[in-house]
Amino acid sequence: MKKNFLSLSCFCAFCAILTTATAWGQTNYEQVNLFSKTDLSQWDFHSDQSDAKVNEVYSFSDNGILTCKGKPFGWLGTKEEYKNFKLSVEYRWSENIKPTTNSGIFLRINNQPEKTFLPRGVEIQLAPKRAGDLYGFHGMKLPAPENAAKDRISTRDGGEKFGHVNGLKKIADLEKEAGQWNSLDILCDNGLIVVVFNGKIVNWATDAEQIAGKIGFQSEGGQVEFRNAIIHYRR
What we know:
Blueprint: H1 2-25, E1 30-33, E2 44-47, E3 58-60, E4 66-68, E5 74-77, E6 85-93, E7 104-111, E8 120-125, E9 134-137, E10 153-157, H2 159-162, E11 164-168, E12 182-189, E13 192-197, E14 200-205, E15 214-219, E16 224-233
C-alpha cells in the first residue's frame, strides 16, 4: 500500500511539474547569477551572535565559490525577494565533516524572529543523510501533497527557535560522498515547490505558502561550499 501511495504521489508531482515547466517555457523571465555579487556588503547577514561579522563566516573565492565556515549559526541572504523562480546551485561538504553537521538553503524568507537565527521561510535541508527534506519554520505553510505517505509528514511546535514546524521528508537519498559536488534544482511556482537532487525528484509540496522572500545560505555547524547559483525568475 505504501509503495502504491508513493507511486501515485510521484506521478501527481510529475504531472504538476510538467505542466508548470511548460508554462515557464512560454513565459519571459530574468536570469541572474547570484554569486556574481562577491562583495559581502551586497548581501543580508543574520547570526545568533550579535557581534558576528559576515566575513568571519562567509567568503567568496576568485572563481565564485561561496564558502561557509558553519559557525556561528546564521544565514547569508539575497537583498532581493523572489516568489516564483527556478534556482540551480551546487554544494559540497568538506571531507572531514562531523555527523552533526548541518546547513540548508532557505526560500521565501519573509521575517526574522528576534530570538533565533532561523528565519520564517522554507528550508531545503542539506544535513548529511537528510539532504532533500523540506521544512517550513515559524508557521510557514507547507501542507503535504495529496496521497503523501504518512511517514513523510511531520508537524510540531519547535518553541522560540523553530516556531511551528511543518516538514516533508524526501523520498530518496541521493547525496554524494563528502568532498563531491551535489547538484540541486529548486522550482517555486505559486504553491508548487519541487526539489531535484542530482538529477532526480526527491521532494515536493503542492500548496505551499505563496509569498515573496529572500534566498538564504545557512551556517549551522560545518564547512560547506556553494557554487553556480543561477536563478530564473518572473518579474
